[in-house]
Amino acid sequence: MALAVLIAAVPLAGRAADPFEINVIIALTGPGAFLAKDQQVVLNAIEDQVNKSGGIRGRPIKFVIADDQSSPQVGVQLMNQAIARKAQVVLGSTLVAICSAMAPLAKDGPVLYCLSPGLHPDPGSYAFSSEPSTTDAFIGTAVYFARRGWHKVALITSSDATGQDAARGIDDAFRAQGGLQIVDRETFNNSDVTVDAQMARVKASDADAVIGWSTGPPIGTVLRSISNLGITLPVVAGNGNMTFAQMKAYADFLPKELYFPGFAALVPDQLPNGVLKQRAAEFTAALRAAGGAESGHVSAWDPALLVVNAYRALGFDATAAQIRDYLANLQNWAGADGTYDFKAIPQRGIGAGSIVMIRWDAARQNWVGVSKPGGEPLGR
């Protein structure tokens, strides 16, 4: 009888130690892979950090990562599978087009935390979006441009969902800032092998600066054509391209002045002492310990920790509605990107005040902050 009791207890002990699984859908292959690979490193770092500190209520966690292949159709299939498994939260996807395809499936739950800033969820919905929005990124950029005296701007965007989101966002941001003018607008298809014709028009536009907005290999096409045409203007590229791998791949034709509307987590040494600097330093240290790039990609860091904190607060049986409400009411939460207030900024928690303009320093092979949070240039 004693032996039978011991044998019966083994499965219970095993179940207690089983990792608590959190569903993730990201683009590990296809055009979004350069971003998702960094997101995977970030998630692995968080998993390691959380489990070494005792997990959630003594139970380890595991991010169960599925590859949507950079395809909205595959993303929808994987989202349906997660729903069938009764998932209460799904992190992903990497690209806004896939998030947009998945979001309608989360109308009544689960919580979908998109890892692209290009998704703009309705307040009160089950969808959330990572990082400041594209419009917020352009607000920070507009402040920086205005203070630097770059008032005439040429814009080139891809024709996909990422580019379309940018084209809308920049108009709202520039109107809010005032004093800035878009003197030329160009578009291109992601499959184009050159945009020399568009860049020739940019060169003739008398612009003070260029904004090229796309994510992944297409931005390489833009930067190559800028080099081909001998354009020496400062260039701002979409912050989804802030990876060491891309900077290395494009090293032969990067502009001398290449900027991104980025985040404090990527330049922790330039932050004033305080909780935000501490959170940014924790982000960098965790990635180093995980063997990833020192910056990685911050888009997955805060969302994943927010979800972990929700389960810590609510328990493993938390419903999608409870998790949504937990996030929706969260205020003054310090993350690597900045301080979150979901009541002030629904479904996102963070806005233009957290944008830090960052320059790629080819000599140092690293990011350098050139503005305060919000876009005001340093030294002003």
Question: What is the class of the largest domain in the CATH system?
Answer: Alpha Beta
The CATH homologous superfamily name of the largest domain equals Response regulator
What is the helix tally? 12
The structural domain count equals 2
- Our measurement of the CA-to-CA distance between the termini, rounded to an integer number of angstroms, reads 79 Å
Question: What profile does the largest beta sheet have?
Answer: 7 strands, mixed
Query: Which structural category fits the helices and strands?
Result: alpha/beta
As a percent range, the share of helical residues equals: 40-55%
Shape: globular
The total of beta strands comes to 14
For the largest sheet, list the strands in their spatial order.
7-6-8-9-10-13-14
Which second-level CATH architecture of the largest domain applies?
Answer: 3-Layer(aba) Sandwich
CATH topology of the largest domain: Rossmann fold
Element-by-element helix/strand order: HEHEHEHEEHEHEHEHEHEHHHEEEE
Radius of gyration: 22 Å
Q: How large is the share of residues in beta strands?
A: 15-25%
Name the poorly predicted regions: 1-15
Describe the structure.
This protein is of the alpha/beta class and 380 residues long. It folds into 2 domains: 19-132 and 278-349, Rossmann fold (3-Layer(aba) Sandwich), CATH 3.40.50; 134-262 and 355-369, Rossmann fold, CATH 3.40.50. It contains 12 helices and 14 strands. It has helices at 2-17, 33-52, 72-84, 96-102, 134-148, 161-177, 196-203, 217-228, 244-249, 275-289, 301-314, 320-328; strands spanning 20-26, 61-67, 89-92, 111-114, 127-129, 152-158, 181-188, 209-213, 235-237, 258-262, 331-334, 339-341, 356-361, 366-369. The chain has a 7-stranded mixed β-sheet with strand order 7-6-8-9-10-13-14, with helices on both faces. It has a 5-stranded parallel β-sheet with strand order 2-1-3-4-5, sandwiched between helices. Strand 6 (152-158), helix 6 (161-177) and strand 7 form a beta-alpha-beta unit. Helix 11 (301-314) crosses helix 12.
